[in-house]
Amino acid sequence: MKRTIIIIPIFLIITVSSMFGQSYRTFASELSWITENARWKIGPFRIYPRIQFRDIGYDDNVYYQMEEREPVSDYTATFSPEIRTYLLFRNYLILSFSENPEYVYYVKESRERRWNNSLTPSFKLLLLSRFVVGGGYSYSNRRRRASSEFDVRANEHREEYNGSLFYETARGTSFGFTVSSGRISYEDITMPGEEIYLSRLLNRKEQNANFEFYYRVFSETFFFLRGGYTDYNFEDVDYRWRDSYSYQSYAGIRFPLLGSVRGTISLGYKKLIPRSEERQKFSGLIGDTSVEYRVWRFGFRGQYIRDCPFSYWTNSVYYISDRYLWGVSFYLTRFLRVDYNYNYGEGRYPEPMMALMPDGSYEERKRKDVYMTHSVGFVFRVIRNTGIGINISWWSRDSNIYWENRDRMFVGGYLTYDF
Q1: pTM here?
Q2: For the chain, does the N or the C end have fewer beta carbons within 10 angstroms?
């Protein structure tokens, strides 16, 4: 009996990657996924639970401080349960609600202990067997590093309303429009030596409209096109010079959630235009690609992300962020896997700034940062695709602004459902 009590809870939280991401899924595919995977039933509701344990270990630089400032180290752990609830009305209406509370614990640094939370109610309504009307609301209140600029975690609050109208064919091809309106706000960082007024620099409203097209190439593989317009309005009167708008388009291929090849290849073009004519514009390649390929005992993965996030470090409205990841996994046995990942990134700023030099003088230069992370780990299978992992990672940032150089090591464990 004791053996049963231990195994059943683990079995109930086994999951594959979420199928409800940013890209559109047809009504039929979502309905099929819910029916096959959300097997808990309470009355008319279908329940899909998941529990995550991650970052359980030792962090030798909690606040990403310089070596001269004697970095703070601590032990940490994150407990993140999630529950998704679905209500199906025959074959024409899906109501869903997800809730993800999360507790981040630090042994010594009480400032970093916090309950995070996010929730998302949404619906999809099928009309005349071809048209799908969708809508939803998302809320997130988390303490995190929102971009590579964040050395210290900060409270981030996001709210968004969205709607969509799509036409779907019997073969699975679909096209339609999505619109959204949201607000992003931050709490100021007021640590000694780290007084940063994020609320003035980054609080903003975003409004977005997109056209999307998905064509089924194979049974679960889709070619897609996506293009749209986004308007950014900053709230602080003194920083309205950051107001901007952008045009962006993507094209790519989305692979199945299960199979030897998984993920999304997505490349595109973006033009970000600050409303202040004195500020630099951005136009060029953007990417959001992440692919995994499994063959024999090996698993290979790659990632490429390029965008122009808003900056608070310098007088630039934005910075150009490039991130590359290469990784490999090898299954030594049926119950033991070895992982290695190398992550390389760059952050480049279009506007020059006055930088303090080591000799005490000042020089005007365009900031550039280089990020590198090496990580190696072992994963032990517990049951089916569930495993317990142990990981060591080394992170560094090398900047042409010398006092922004940083490094960090983290040793920890986690629970994975993708052995």
Answers
A1: 0.90
A2: N
Beta strand segments in 275-367, E:
282-295, 298-307, 320-333, 336-348, 353-356, 362-365
> Identity (one letter) of the amino acid at 87?
L
The residue type found at 350 is: P
Q: What does the pLDDT look like over 220-265, one tens digit per residue?
A: 899 999 999 999 999 999 999 999 999 999 999 999 877 789 999 9
Domain ranges of the chain: 2-416
- Torsion (CA) 302, 307, 312, 314 in degrees, nearest 10: 100
Distances from the Cα of 154 to the Cα of 23, 116, 146, 318, angstroms: 28, 12, 8, 19
Question: Tokens for 214?
Answer: 């998905």
pLDDT higher for 55 or 20? Answer: 55
The gap from C-alpha 80 to its chain's centroid, in whole angstroms, comes to: 15
- For domain 2-416, the question of CATH label 2.40.160 is answered with yes
Give CA 200 to chain center in angstroms: 24
